[in-house]
Predict the 3D structure of the following.
Amino acid sequence: MNKIFYIHISLLLFCGLFMLSCDDMEDKIPNGNLIQTGETSGILVLSEGLFNMNNSTLAKFNFDSNEFFPDYFSTVNKRGLGDTAGDMARYGSKLYIMVNISSQIEIIDINTGKSLKQIPMFDDKGMARQPRHIAFYGGKAYVCSFDGTVAKIDTTTLKVENYVNAGLNPDGICVANHKLYVSNSGGLNYPAYDKTVSVIDISTFREIKKINVGLNPGTIHSDSEGDVYVVTRGNYGSEEYKFQRISSVTDSLIDSYNDIKALGFTIHNDTAYIYNYDFSNTNSWIKVFDCKHEKLISEQFITDGTLIKTPYSIEVNPTNGDVYISDAFQFTILGDVLCFDRNGKLKFRLKEIGLNPNKIIFI
Amino acid sequence: MRIEFSNFPKKIFVFAILSLQAVGVSAVEKVDSTKIYEIKEITVKGKFSNTETQSSAPVQILSAGKMNKLNVLQVSDAARYFSGVTVKDFGGIGGLKTISVRSFGAAHTAVSYDGVTITDCQTGQIDIGRYSLENVDMISLNNGQSDNIFQSARLFASAAVLNIRSVRPVFSGNKTMNGSLTFRSGSFGLLNPSFSLQNRLSEKFSAVFSAEILSANGEYPYLLQYSAQDDGLVSHEIRKNSDVHNVRLEASLFGRLNTNSSGFIKTYFYQSERGLPGATVFYNADNFSSQRLKDYNFFTQAHFENIVSPLFSVQFNGKFYHGYLHYSDTTYLNEEGKIESIYRQNEYYGSASVLFHPVDQFYVSFSTDGFINNMTANFETKSLNDEFAGPTRYSLLSVVAARYVSSAFTATSSLLSTLVSEKVQVGNPSPQQKRLSPYAGISFKPIENTDLRIRAFYKSIFRLPSFNDLYYSRTGNENLRPELTDQFNIGATYSASISHRIPSLIFTMDVYRNYVKDKIIAMPTKNIFVWSMLNLGRVEVNGLDLTAESSFLLTPGNNIVIGSTYTYQRALDVTSPGGNTFQHQIPYTPRVSGTFRAGVETSLINVYYSLLWSGKRYSGFQNYAENRLPGYSDHSLSASRIFQMNDKQIHLKFEVLNLLNENYAVVRWFPMPGRSFRITANLKF
């Protein structure tokens, strides 16, 4: 009987011991980024993460010292950036980061990464404004937010000075001809999307016009001639993606390039680099557009056959004209940043740099 | 979302406690009804004849008596004590709680209430936090399916079944009425009065009525960590918008017309209003705490069974269900400044089963279930209303099953046919589904006089896409195929009554391999903001489940009871070899987890300790450090005493939950409550 008793006890202990052991699951290590790029200086890459996961990151890559800091902001500031950081832009020595769902504008010193100010973006009732994008003009920053407003922030005092109303869920802002152009997406108002671009006079800080464009406008940039280009994303059904041009002189829509189904773009030296990703057949392409002569220069920027699964942002290095494109893959895994020379040949790939990398700044 | 607790009828179990394991499903399920038939399915031997060790597929049982020792309030709390189970818990009494069995998604586990499946065609998963344990006699979990082949076809139609069985009226001596009055209160504003009455109406009929109110403000403190670094910023926060207020009413009429015929009719009504606390978004936790949910559901179901002859029995089940759900978010930045969604679902269900017993030890059954589910909706704008699909699903399930039982060997096999077609008011319906799903299980006892059994089962089954998967505004994909699963299980069970001091010992071990194909996952297919559902994933699961339980008799009236479970799950994404997630453990699935329970029962006081622990998990598809959620352990302790006064009984209980005040989350950014207290007073008369 005693023997059985001990067998019995040991069975239970056996179970107990199991409990303390056997977790053979270890963190996997992301693909290394210690590659020689041959570049000097470095880049900052903003990754928005996923909604409600508090995992937006700002990564820093020092090319000359070959150092990579995947969560640079958090390492320096001992706190995370927040939820769904959608855009960042540099003005002087300061970097402004729009943290959409956390509803904060994080302003950091671009050289040290230290937070200089965190501006909470809430209205009088405490409702989150949800900042999306930023543009600068004459010492002021203009931030459009999903609550339909544009905020004017002084870049010295870092205080919000005023608000003006635009349309529904603004999702892009740029400056042309002393005016702000704000694309009103209505993205949260599905299926009744907005289809206007608000024109705001900077000196009076008032909306002076709403220009009708395609359904669901998003990314918006201007060229040196004062033309404003906007991507309209349609309704994912009958209404297609389009690339459109607005004149800042007449404040009217002057061109609609219906065959350029764009998702995003950037303009550098009056050359637009436009990307699209067709979600229905998973094809993607990068096109090059001459903004001076308003015509397509290249149907396929990438010339060496490099495949990009899901282009998610595009930037041009102002110092040498290299084109950086981020690939978000299926949005739930870390994305890459690829650098191409101006002829569309891959120079290098930075692997697994962040979850949904959506903005690159050159430092 | 949910509720609560349990009484403690000590009917069948001699030694109770600890285990996730226990005694006979057939025995338990059938005690009140088809006694004559089903009792044959188990070999009564000693004090524990038990389906848990004799079944061909693993089954774990928690009786009300056992649950009373576990510091549990709602079905979801108790289900955490089953091995192989992960309860996805969004925290608080009101937070969504769904069950994942052996790494399958929640939609693969059917939840049955008194033998009839509860359905939610909208999400495909059941919030088991909504089911109170107050009027529950037993819950059990079948991997694969039950060895009981005399049941409705739906109970054959899922990868696992969680059974909830409500209290049956039992009258001792000449009593014609039993009553129970409970008052419970605790931390975070918990108030939970309940009342139940059992009445013997006549020789043939008895009735049970049960009512319960639960209310809590749910405002529990938690620690918000803004960085994974040790010296990172932290803040002490209070969970907001976590209140819950619900009412449950349940009435049943049981009849035993003669020795061969019995049945019941029951009506269940549940209404709740609650906050849906969002993720604890950095710097903006409050704004995502404005979502509210009001809902009610109602069902009435009937069961009748008749032993027509020694060779032939029949049973019928029917149910009508209506569910109403109103979701609102008053901070949404659309034109209306809010989301208001109202969903209504109905189910009409009928089932007929026959059981043949042509020769000794051999049974054959046929069951057919037909049911219709529909859903309607109202939104804040006309354009949303106009595009809502308004789906109706027609299902016909038929199963033929056979079972052979002897004292040393049992074998069960079934083949299920599923026929599903849908209609929609707007858009295109999902194509018709026709499937055949096999099951086979065996159990045998290699050594005579030793209750060691070897068991194995195979099951192939699928889950249908939910209405949300198929038709949800913008994200639905009506061409989705069912998500397929294959399960292989081999196990051993051992039970013994070693001496009068150790009246029971049960030990089970199962190893299994599961495959999931055509896993339904959300992917952006129209736009980065517009995710849609696709059949994309493949998962391979290799797992081990262990359970052990025992009791020791110290001196007469003084016992020690202990038990534990251990689960190992290697649940790997095998979707695309060479891909960035290949062979990464799937999200929210710990490699190891387990439970431990121990109690000391004396004539003076009963003290119970219970532990839930889990290894680390990953919140994302990649097993990288930034996605890691640390493991946790959650300890609870209770002290209780029963005072007997003539025919009345008072039971007092004091519980401390999460004793070590561990700050943890099951779902990332949805914190669980820290240390809390609960006190319960129950009067039985």
Summary: The CA atoms of residues 464 and 482 of chain B lie 5 Å apart.
